[in-house]
Amino acid sequence: MALKQSLTDLASLLPDNLSEDTLTKIVGLIQETIKSEVTERMKVLEAKASAFIRKNIDSIKNQALSELTEESDIYQDAMQFRKLKGIMGVDKIKVSEQANVSELQEENAVLLEHLNVLATENSKFKKLAKTYKAKAILAEQTLNESLEEVQELKESNEKPFKSSEKALVIVENNEVEQGRSVSNPFLGDEVLALMPKG
Question: Which domain holds residue 83?
């Protein structure tokens, strides 16, 4: 409205005998001037608005966020979902940790069972080793004794045999006469002749 009034005032100031071409040029100049002025003022306003926003950005954000949290059901649902997701994540971690613990306990039980079996077998092997060691010591002693006996027999075989036993014939008369028969049929004259005298 003010612009239309200004244009009417401007038209009244112009002389009546102006040609249409001149009027068109004047209108073009006026439009360019207005456009230039509007552009300059817009730049100034934009700079002021930008500076205002930069200066108050934190408070604007906080205000927008508080309005969003108070008024928006979507935001509140999203926050509830985030909390629920966090709780479920914690529960998942707990379940996962419990599963890991129970797996480790099962593995430990199996390992302990194997360890007990190995310990029992190890104990049996130790007893068996002691038995074999005792048998080996006994066998070595027996072998040494046998070698000593063989050595003694070998040495005794190398010496000529000489009997140290003597036979003594006792008769009732204490006298043995040549040619006299004795009541023992095995002791004949030939055997009695071989007996040492006296």
Answer: 20-111
